[in-house]
Specification:
It contains ten helices and eight strands. The protein is of the alpha/beta class.
Amino acid sequence: MISVLMRSHNDILYVRSTVEALLSQSVDEEMEIISCDDHSADGTAEYLAQVTKIRRISAPEGKYVPGKTLNHMIREARGEYIVFNNADAIPQTKEYLKNLVAPLKDKSVNCVFSNQIARQDAFAVVRKDYERAFGDGSISRNWHKFFSLVSSGFRKEELILHPFDETFQYSEDSQWVNRREVKIVYVPEAIVEHSHNYTLPEVKKRFFNEGVADKQMGKKSPGVLRTWKSIFAETLRDWIYLAKNGALSEFFYAPRYRYMQKMSYYRGTKQ
């Protein structure tokens, strides 16, 4: 059995499409969908309550902590294979699940993750980041243990033996793959649509907290000089991408975005 674990929080814009795509999957194994909603106030919880083919479970008591919710859902799952699919990550084909879990039949593989394509309304700089991180995997395969939990798969026995750390508020997926040696497989044929057009304050919050999490993992701060070099290098890549794709309206936005992203991360590592 494949247990699809779906977290949600105010995802009404996407959750219908996600659920419909999951329910239409072509799989050989039996499948269950388990939903755990984090106090949505936009109609997400009400919609999920109407879908009889979804098993809903209550969120753990207290403040939302990713690892706590994930471990709670894993214990409820009946499947041999666990797939995490966020409520705003929309599968693009009926073979998505089949393709995603296939590598897990090799016992040497610890976890898998899917291809993510940006939404049609994504900022060009966001679209560029997704193409570099995912796509054919030729770029991110050179990054140290790149992984995304948004759309990913594990064997349940692995997660019971190695649960998520419940002390991390951010980057719980990165912490899981970095705390020991694991074999990660990227599955480009398993595709979901997923991206966020964060405001600059949201970018600041997200990357600051990712920096805090990386420090908690024992990673070294990049330092001021390396941070500035990263800002300039990424902005240059942005400008080239914007020129090639006719998106010069973001020409002045790109350096502001990169400054907020990279400098906030650096500041987080210094906490």
